Amino acid sequence: MNQIPCALTIAGTDPSGGAGIQADLKTFQEFTCYGMSIITSVVAQNTTGVQDVHHIPINMIEKQLDSVISDIPFQAYKTGMIANIDMMEVIVQKITPLNVPYIMDPVMVATSGDSLIAEEARNFLREQLLPLAALVTPNVPEAEYITGESIKTVNDLQQAAEQIVVKHGAGAALVKGGHLDGEAIDILYDGNKMHRFSSERIDTNNTHGTGCTYSASITALLSKGIPLPAAVKQAKDYVTAAIRHSFSIGKGNGPTNHWATRPEEVKQ
Ligand SMILES: Nc1ncnc2c1ncn2[C@@H]1O[C@H](COP(=O)(O)OP(=O)(O)O)[C@@H](O)[C@H]1O
Ligand SMILES: Cc1ncc(COP(=O)(O)OP(=O)(O)O)c(N)n1
Question: Membrane spanning segments where (predicted)?
């Protein structure tokens, strides 16, 4: 058994450092969790949007998974951008035998509006991957796709969270209200109880990578054995601080600040 909590992310890259694998590894590091990564797609993107995408060949995704799984135990893992059905199939095959919490961030579209997943893969994600997840963390458009229902209010967030667990088979659902107006309210349904997490809405366009940062925080905390509602509370506080002190760098939507919860570090 490891002494050090270890977590794995399976996702695409962001060379500008705000989202994807880079955001996940920065977050794991901030939570003193040893981070590992499987790259699914190399994405040429920055704060203004996605310029190009190169998908890693399926056999290399499989080999990366084998390399990590055969060598280093981890206590939680997450998926982010998984662009097509072939990738999803190999991931389902490799993760099904694992007996540690799986956190699925059902990444579909970046803040810039660029699609990160093939149209025909969305259904596979909902039908085959989602039921394997201990927790799924959709934003409003992703939850609308999964449930087929429009989401406009907090009550709609609650209904979506319940439906994703009861009808679609996730262990728990955290439906994020970042795309609604007013307070930033997220709803967790853990199969028993609704939990509500809220913060003031911060007036900023620097929200690149917020979803990745949030789900990576939860993954790191679960890898340390922290119970789900407490992990989400701590992760919500972390992502809120990271948005509040986000960096105005780049020409578009700037990234979150992973040092924001360190008292002595950079605040903007
Ligand atoms: N302007 C904002 N102020 C405060 N919190 C926000 C803001 N925008 C998003 N959030 C929060 O950031 C987290 C990520 O949510 P969201 O933006 O909905 O996801 P995604 O990045 O996947 O689209 C959630 O906790 C959400 O409530
Ligand atoms: C490679 C990669 N994965 C995921 C995203 C989407 O990130 P997210 O945290 O949902 O935030 P935005 O970047 O959409 O604001 C991405 N851009 N790239």
Answer: none
The strands making up 76-79's β-sheet, listed across from edge to edge, are 34-39, 6-11, 76-79, 102-104, 135-136, 173-176, 184-189, 194-199
Q: How far is the CA of 176 from the centre of ligand 1 (A)?
A: 7
Residue nearest to atom 7 of ligand 2 (CA): 209
Q: Residue 93 is part of a domain; what is its CATH number?
A: 3.40.1190.20
C-alpha 49/C-alpha 72 separation (Å) is: 34
Q: Which of 210, 218, 253, 257 should be mutated for ligand 1, with most atoms under 8 A from CB? A: 210
Does the annotation mark 211 as catalytic? yes
- Per cent of the chain over pLDDT 70 is 99
Is 267 a domain residue?
Answer: no
Helix (H, G, I), strand (E, B) or coil at 29: helix
Assess if residue 265 is contained within a domain: no
In a domain, 263, yes or no: no
33 in active site: no
| 196 CA → ligand 2 middle, Å | 24
The whole domain housing 21 covers 6-258
The total of structural domains in the chain comes to: 1
pTM: predicted TM-score of the whole model, two decimal places: 0.97
| pLDDT per position as a tens digit, 150-197 | 999 999 999 999 999 999 999 999 999 999 999 999 999 999 999 999
ipTM (interface predicted TM): 0.97
Q: Distance, CA 218 to ligand 1 centroid (Å)?
A: 14
Q: Is residue 49 part of a domain?
A: yes
